[in-house]
Amino acid sequence: MRFADCLLVLVFLPFLSVAIAIDICSAKPKDLSLEPYCVYRSPEFSDGPSLEAVPNFTNPRVWELSKANGRFGLSLYKQLALGRSPESNIFMSPISVSTAFAMTKLGACNETLKQIMKVFEFDTIKEKTSDQVHFFFAKLNCRLYRKKDETTELISANRLFGDKSLTFNETYQNISETVYGAKLLPLNFKENPENARVTINNWISNKTENRIQDTLPAGSLDPTTVLVLVNTIYFKGQWKHKFDKDQVFNTDFHVSESRTCSVNMMYQQTKFRYKYFPDDHVQLLEMPYRGDDITMVIILPSRDTTLSQVEETLDLAKLNSWLDQMKETTVSVEVPRFKVEHSFSLKEKLKEMGLTDLFSSDKASLPGMLEDSNFGLYISDAFHKAFLEVNEEGSEAAAATAVVAVGRSFNPYREVFTADRPFLLLIRESIINTLLFTGRVADPCNQ
């Protein structure tokens, strides 16, 4: 009979530096002991070698993991969009969600492990066994979270909060710390779950300079809670081409056919990667941050096309095709200042995608997390909270100043990109196209 549950939490935090005994970034598989409790053997691939060119200085399996994250991220985004009105904002981090469930995979077996591998598309990585996923995650993390530019921060942090009355599997702890930097902090869930909830929320708040608070809602922990996994990602970047504060003006944003709201629209005219796709009824604009390898891509539907129509047919293959065709050209750009914050439970969305057993007290198989492998363990819920602010300087989790001005230059040979209606956005590592964040800005006035 099951008598325990594990709560998985996903948030964004801006700070953590992890010291480990081995340099994971230069290590080879033979240097690390990454044998999880159970191993899932993927079916043999019959489609032969990939014809897609792997970016320079990139491990082919890391490249495949990045693509798996992209496919999962767009699938999850579609699930979120189905459950929200077209006028609702959406924002989340696919890589954050994938990383947290990769840590969960460490202790999973049987059908639970198979579902994790399938839903997060880890089984598309051309290796026979699931244990290599963690090594490739380590290599991907080394690539993503290296210092990009002195003005850019892209930081990931992880933490395990376990009930102090239980003994957690040593291998599970070692791999979590070695690969993900996730140390275990004991808490008293059994006797005082509310105090544990406040402790975790305060830790999150302190790490985000009070920008993200109350991630765990009241009642989310109870005496049966055993483990809370916190995966975090934080990004702060300055535009390579900043918007001029004197070029900000007030205008209407068309939330829908019947509703507008007033926004501060930023303006600049310079060279960006851009492309209009008439058959797909979208414009794409890519704006780089300083350092060039992190960019924001905005997907703007034509005026006669709804954002929902674009979302319905969007997948990674189409997105990559669009990105490959973009060219640098002079563009007259108008983008609103905005903030988006999105907090939600992942449980039902992931169950709809096929991750059912993990959340079932009767079917979950997570014997590798505790020393007592017979201890009934399952995931009770998974929470995700994300925040983004875009202004003249760039993107960050901070307050913005309001500046209204007029006066713009005119170039008759430039392309025009006016984001005065709902659009999709992606923040990505551009070399291997890892989706760090994705979302929809449908109502920039709803902050």
Molecular structure report:
The protein is α+β, with helices and mostly antiparallel strands. It folds into 2 domains: 5-237 and 340-388, Antithrombin, Chain I, domain 2 (2-Layer Sandwich), CATH 3.30.497; 240-337 and 397-441, Alpha-1-antitrypsin, domain 1, CATH 2.30.39. 24% of the residues lie in helices and 29% in strands. The strands form 2 sheets. Strands 2, 6, 7, 8, 9, 10, 14, 15 and 16 form a 9-stranded mixed sheet that branches. A hairpin with a 4-residue loop joins β15 and β16. α1 packs across α4 (132-144). The termini are far apart. 47% of the residues are buried. One of its GO terms (cellular component) is extracellular space. This is Antithrombin-III. Keywords: Blood coagulation, Disulfide bond, Glycoprotein, Hemostasis, Heparin-binding, Phosphoprotein, Protease inhibitor, Secreted, Serine protease inhibitor, Signal. One of its GO terms (molecular function) is heparin binding. Residues 74-444 form the Serpin domain.
Question: What descriptors fit this protein?
Answer:
447 residues, alpha+beta, Antithrombin, Chain I, domain 2, Alpha-1-antitrypsin, domain 1, 2 domains, 9-stranded mixed beta sheet, 7-stranded mixed beta sheet, 29% strand, disulfide bond
How is this structure best summarized?
The chain has 447 residues and is of the alpha+beta class.
The biggest beta sheet, please?
A: 9 strands, mixed
Instruction: Please report the number of helical segments.
Output: 9
What value does the average pLDDT take?
82
**Secondary structure category:** alpha+beta
Low-confidence stretches: 8-21, 396-410
The global form is globular
The H-level CATH homologous superfamily of the largest domain, spelled out, is: Antithrombin, subunit I, domain 2
Note the run of SSEs as H and E: EHEHHHEHEHEEEEEHHEEHEEEEE
Number of individual domains: 2
- In helices, the fraction of residues equals 10-25%
CATH topology of the largest domain: Antithrombin, Chain I, domain 2
Radius of gyration: 22 Å
The percentage of residues in β strands lies in 25-35%
How many distinct beta strands? Answer: 16
**CATH architecture classification of the largest domain:** 2-Layer Sandwich
Q: Assign the CATH class of the largest domain.
A: Alpha Beta
| Span between termini | 45 Å
